[in-house]
Design a protein that fits this description.
The complex is a heterodimer of chains A (284) and B (273). Chain A has nine helices and 14 strands. With 284 residues, chain A is of the alpha/beta class. Chain A has one domain: Carbon-nitrogen hydrolase (Nitrilase/N-carbamoyl-D-aminoacid amidohydrolase). A six-stranded mixed β-sheet of chain A has the order 5-4-3-2-1-14. In chain A, helix 5 (152-160) links the parallel strand 7 (139-145) and strand 8 (165-170). Chain A is globular, with a radius of gyration of 18 Å. Chain B has a single domain (2-248), classed as Rossmann fold (3-Layer(aba) Sandwich), CATH 3.40.50.620. Chain B has helices at 8-25, 39-52, 69-82, 92-99, 107-128, 139-144, 165-175, 179-183, 196-200, 204-216, 221-227, 231-243; strands at 30-34, 57-61, 85-88, 131-133. A four-stranded parallel β-sheet of chain B has the order 3-2-1-4, sandwiched between helices. Classes of the chains: A alpha/beta (284), B alpha/beta (273).
């Protein structure tokens, strides 16, 4: 099945839901005109990244008007968008919503909240406790958010759960200026994206943000990597961009014929060994 | 030195974007900076001119009577090379008027007073030109505390505060900062013949390499000594970093309420901008 996908590499305004929603709406309208089937925004699209004590005031619930508005749009275009989600028990999550045909097809709540270096997420947010692939009208997908992707186990779970498309949304700070051509952080990300795409024979759809918050730059460079590990499209570094292409699951099929790594995964062995490790190393 | 090598194209691009972004997000279009004739303010000026275009950059040259004439000449070179606006304001009358009371004041007090006099002039021009004050402190001096708190360390935005001096030199080359500014010995220019390296007692190259491993790469004391740094050098630099910590922080607030500014009242500075 073929479908068109776009990555909206934007720079949200910190803590201004209305302004960010307006910006998203303009992009969604354009994407609809461009006949895009699936439109992906970066992590915390609606709020910006260093939200700290703003968290509670910019959180949305699944019945909030903002989400209703986006759900209306999703009757015409599928959307992945990031926001702070408030659950009925008053927890706040760094969430990604997959919206299609007027319904929420999936919510991924960021599991790995970085709280070291310049990151402070666990101080302000609750950690998700599920990683699931899910079905959409374009195929089976998985969503991970930024730091989640730095845990190969999270990617393995998503792939083994049958995802053909791994959507990674992020607010990745650009750091490390010593290399010859790219930022240190982009080198690592680009290596991860290619590696995951190739070893799990799936598409990686990586949407990063740009802009600055308190002097931290977000480096952009969003990209889609094919199941053979090739870069299909690449957004600009450091500035806002909008890129799109057409994906086809036949490319996944071909890769899985050539290199059937997923077929040969020994899930039972993995579980057995992980359980042993858990017993031996994490239980008294 | 190798550890401190930077990709100047990429660094320049990020810093230029940073200036543009931070100025525009608060509804400004101008910056003002003190131009000393030294390399740090020259680099900041070049970056600002590129980010905002020269007509949005105001350089203030603020010599004291003991400042070297070469410093003024070099600052004027920067103005010429970048096409930014410039104003010359001698601080001699203000400084001398004050120290008439304290004829025996130390060099330190005089140096600090000059730095703070310049700061008040910059912030006055910030209001005059509706301009943000652009910082010119580099990472080396910020870490060592080799600057005057609320003086040259004061600014609204600082594009070069995460670059060591040896990295500033590389960036200066790439930006086309006049050669003599890059090549001359760094100096606070408070008295004739003063140089940073003589005053500090080590070279920027050595201390930058040490700071890079100590701060950026988090090497322990033992690991630094294993790398070949002398223990006395490591200890002295660490002490300078620790004892100047207060200069890099907001004033300490006694906490008595349930929510104190900057401890548990936490918002990014770029909040809603």
């Amino acid at each position: 099945m073929k479908f068109s996908v776009a990555l909206a590499q934007i720079s949200p305004t910190l803590g201004n839901l209305e302004k960010n929603l307006e910006k998203c709406e303009r992009i969604i309208d354009q994407a609809i005109r461009d006949r895009i089937d699936l439109l992906i925004f970066p992590e915390l699209t609606l709020t910006g990244y260093f939200i700290k004590d703003i968290v509670a005031s910019v959180a949305i619930t699944t019945d909030s008007p903002i989400l209703q508005k986006l759900l209306d749009y999703s009757k015409r275009i599928s959307i992945v968008i990031g926001a702070v989600e408030e659950t009925p028990d008053f927890k706040f999550f760094n969430s990604a919503f997959y919206l299609e045909d007027g319904r929420i097809a999936h919510i991924h709540r960021k599991v790995y909240l970085p709280t070291y270096g310049l990151f402070d997420e666990h101080r302000y947010l609750a950690a998700g406790n599920k990683i699931r692939a899910f079905d959409t009208k374009f195929g089976r997908m998985g969503i991970l958010i930024c730091e989640d992707l730095w845990h190969p186990t999270a990617v393995a779970i998503t792939a083994l759960d049958g995802a053909h498309y791994l959507i990674g949304i992020s607010c990745s700070p650009g750091r490390g200026i010593e290399a010859s051509d790219r930022l240190g952080s982009s080198i690592t990300w680009e290596r991860l994206n290619r590696t995951y795409a190739q070893i799990y024979s799936l598409y990686v759809l990586f949407c990063n943000r740009t802009g600055f918050e308190d002097g931290v730059n977000f480096w952009g460079g969003s990209e889609i990597i094919s199941p053979s590990g090739e870069q299909l499209i690449k957004a600009l570094y450091i500035q806002e961009d909008f890129i799109h292409t057409t994906l086809n699951d036949r490319a996944i099929r071909r890769e899985r014929i050539i290199t059937p790594l997923i077929r040969d995964e020994q899930l039972h062995l993995t579980i057995q060994e992980l359980e042993r490790i858990y017993r031996e190393r994490f239980e008294d | 030195m190798n550890a401190l090598k930077i990709n100047t194209d990429l660094t320049r691009r990020i810093l230029v974007e940073f200036i543009r972004n931070e100025v525009e997000r608060v509804g400004f279009s101008n910056v003002v900076l003190g131009l000393s004739g030294g390399i740090d303010s020259a680099v900041s000026a070049f970056l600002a001119a590129e980010a905002l275009s020269p007509e949005h950059v105001w350089a203030i040259l603020m010599p004291y009577k003991s400042s070297s004439p070469q410093s003024i000449a070099d600052a004027e070179e920067v103005v010429k090379a970048t096409g930014i606006h410039s104003t010359l304001i001698e601080i001699t009358p203000m400084i001398d008027a004050y120290f008439e009371r304290y004829p025996d004041a130390s060099r330190l007090r005089r140096g600090n007073k000059m730095a703070r006099e310049r700061m008040t002039i910059l912030y006055d021009h910030s209001s005059l030109y509706r301009a943000l004050v652009l910082g010119t402190s580099n990472k080396t001096e910020l870490l060592l505390g080799y600057g005057t708190i609320f003086g040259d360390m004061a600014s609204s935005i600082n594009p070069i505060g995460d670059l060591y001096k040896t990295q500033i030199w590389q960036l200066a080359e790439a930006l086309g900062v006049p050669k003599q500014i890059i090549e001359k010995k760094p100096s606070a220019d408070l008295w004739t013949g003063q140089t940073d390296e003589e005053e500090l007692g080590f070279t920027y190259e050595d201390v930058d390499t040490l700071l890079y491993y100590m701060v950026d790469r988090r090497y322990s004391r033992e690991e630094l000594i294993d790398l070949g740094f002398k223990d006395t050098f490591v200890d002295r630099v660490r002490k300078m970093v620790v004892s100047s910590q207060y200069k890099r922080r907001l004033p300490v607030i006694a906490k008595v309420s349930y929510r104190t500014i900057d401890r548990d009242f936490r918002y990014a500075r770029d909040w809603e901008t």
